[in-house]
């Protein structure tokens, strides 16, 4: 079965789907994106993802070129046409196609909209969660507005590749004061030995993960204490557990950082419980 992509009003076989060489997403990374989990053929937390999308667009002064209702139809239709039951739906909106010029294109230039969907092996994710993943630290090299879910991801690409070349699955960025900001494609968390769950507060310096937001509800329902504060790599090594959150990873335990074990070097019970409970607190559409 060929995969179908939505590009500016048309559903096309992936091999035929194209954007212009003058698309500002291609020329300047002048665009934003969202990634939602698909579970049992439903989109997880679409409402929250669309709220974040609108915020990202607003910060960059890119207009949403269709109603949220129409966009929702496109997201669901792309999932349906690709027959994805478990996987991800990806949405990208750029400032559109115009002659290459750094300033904004002429008023009336229509933003580009691209939607794709793909299958993910759910059992593979479960295995990764059961085994735990490893991370390496990297100096924070990203721009000062990573709260905007922009497609400008070069530092994340380089960090992820460096992590892979070191045999690990994720990179955790560390700021100039020695505090972990977040992962290259995930939010970062630790659980202290006295069972406090710690994550960096939201601001301009991390992405406000939708999984992170939902997890705050899961923590409250589990009666766990949350501390929103920055933490250091030394604190990670002294922690009982660590984990990452992202739409593509839900809650996945981290068992080693820079080659050193975290806790007893195995996935911990709190991360496992949070992962198990997670979808009781999400919305499905
Ligand atoms: N932080 C970064 C840099 C990300 O790229 C992502 C997701 O891709 C996240 C955090 C997690 O966000 P979400 O939970 O909305 O997937």
Mind explaining what this structure looks like?
- Helices cover about 30% and strands about 30% of the residues.
- It is an alpha+beta fold.
- Helix 5 (about 155-165) links the parallel strand 7 and strand 8 (about 170-175).
- The longest helix is centred in the first third of the chain and has 15 residues, at about 45-60.
- It starts with a strand and ends in an 8-residue tail after the last helix.
- The site of pyridoxal-5'-phosphate has 13 residues, from helix 6 and strand 13.
- Pyridoxal-5'-phosphate (PLP) binds next to helix 6 and strand 13.
Chain-wise SSE layout:
Blueprint lengths: L3 E4 L2 E4 L10 H5 L2 E9 L2 E2 L2 H15 L7 H14 L5 E8 L17 E8 L2 H10 L1 E7 L14 H12 L4 E5 L5 E4 L3 E5 L4 E4 L10 H12 L3 E4 L4 H6 L2 E6 L3 E8 L2 E2 L7 H9 L8
Parallel strand pairs: 7-8, 7-14, 11-12
Antiparallel strand pairs: 1-2, 1-6, 3-4, 3-5, 5-6, 8-9, 10-11, 10-13, 13-14, 14-15
Bound molecules: pyridoxal-5'-phosphate (PLP).
Notable characteristics:
285 residues, 28% strand, globular, binds pyridoxal-5'-phosphate, alpha+beta
Output mean pLDDT: 97
Share of residues in helices: 25-40%
Described by the principal axes of the CA atoms, the overall outline is globular
Kindly state the number of beta strands: 15
Q: Distance N terminus to C terminus?
A: 25 Å
Radius of gyration: 19 Å
Order of H and E elements:
EEHEEHHEEHEHEEEEHEHEEEH
Low-confidence runs of at least 5 consecutive residues: none
User: Which ions and ligands are bound to the chains?
Assistant: pyridoxal-5'-phosphate
- Which structural class best describes the helix and strand composition? alpha+beta
Counting DSSP H or I runs of 4 or more residues, the number of helices is 8
User: Can you summarize the main beta sheet?
Assistant: 9 strands, mixed
Q: Percent of residues in beta strands?
A: 25-35%
């Amino acid at each position: 079965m060929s995969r179908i992509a939505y590009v500016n009003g048309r559903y096309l076989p992936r091999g035929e789907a194209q954007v212009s060489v003058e698309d500002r997403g291609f020329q300047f990374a002048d665009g934003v994106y969202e990634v939602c989990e698909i579970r049992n053929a439903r989109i997880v937390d679409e409402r929250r993802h669309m709220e974040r999308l609108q915020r990202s667009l607003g910060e960059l002064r890119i207009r949403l070129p269709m109603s949220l209702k129409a966009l929702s139809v496109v997201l669901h239709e792309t999932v349906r046409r690709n027959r994805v039951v478990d996987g991800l739906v990806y949405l990208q909106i750029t400032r559109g196609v115009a002659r290459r010029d750094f300033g904004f294109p002429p008023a009336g230039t229509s933003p580009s909209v691209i939607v794709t969907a793909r299958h993910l092996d759910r059992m593979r994710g479960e295995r990764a969660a059961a085994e735990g993943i490893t991370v390496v630290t990297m100096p924070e090299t990203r721009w000062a507005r990573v709260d905007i879910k922009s497609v400008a991801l070069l530092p994340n690409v380089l960090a992820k590749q460096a992590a892979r070349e070191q045999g690990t699955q994720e990179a955790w960025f560390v700021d100039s004061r020695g505090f972990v900001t977040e992962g290259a494609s995930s939010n970062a968390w630790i659980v202290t030995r006295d069972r406090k769950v710690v994550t960096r507060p939201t601001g301009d310096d991390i992405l406000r993960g939708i999984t992170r937001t939902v997890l705050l509800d899961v923590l409250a329902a589990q009666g766990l204490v949350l501390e929103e504060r920055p933490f250091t790599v030394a604190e990670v090594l002294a922690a009982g557990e660590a984990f990452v959150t992202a739409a593509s990873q839900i809650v996945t335990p981290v068992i080693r950082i820079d080659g050193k074990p975290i806790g007893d070097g195995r996935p911990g019970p709190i991360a496992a419980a949070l992962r198990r409970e997670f979808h009781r607190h999400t919305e499905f559409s």
